[in-house]
Amino acid sequence: MDLGNTLFTLGIIILLVALIAMVIVFQGYLSAKYDLPGRATGRPKKKSTTFLDEGEDEKKCEICYGKINEDPIAKCACGRIFHEACAKPTGSCPYCGTSYENMEVREPERTRCPVCGKFLKGSICSCGAVIRRKDDTFVCKCGNFVDAGKPVCKKCGAVYERTIMKVFKEKK
Length: 172
Known about the structure:
Layout: H1 3-34, H2 36-41, E1 73-75, E2 81-83, H3 84-90, E3 104-106, E4 137-139, E5 145-147
Antiparallel strand pairs: 1-2, 1-3, 4-5
């Protein structure tokens, strides 16, 4: 083999490798932009995860550190919330000094299920939806915190299956 044929063959090989690399990059770009894998398999593209925003009923009283639940709250201008029963005897906010009379006293805002719209207690709705929190955990039916990455409750042994739920909104 002479030097000319060797260089020609090497040039062809380099050109083919570059062409294959360009095809792979272009295919990845189209796949990401147009969801080609989802269309080819018939599975929908994964949607963004819905996290359970903590409602006031899930927060803790800044005086006794007990869970608010459905008890009436006193919300201070500084943003802290207390059980009304804890704030009233103190007479003022222990953090900023705002008097109890200047606090907003009302029922707490409760968390709703993003799937069916019912009020939630914990992370599991009566419709079966399990909504994880921003720290990637949810509360099992037994009250134990479960890691969403390993969805098996260590306390009661309940096993949770990860599925993608379609959220239907009412048409007005």
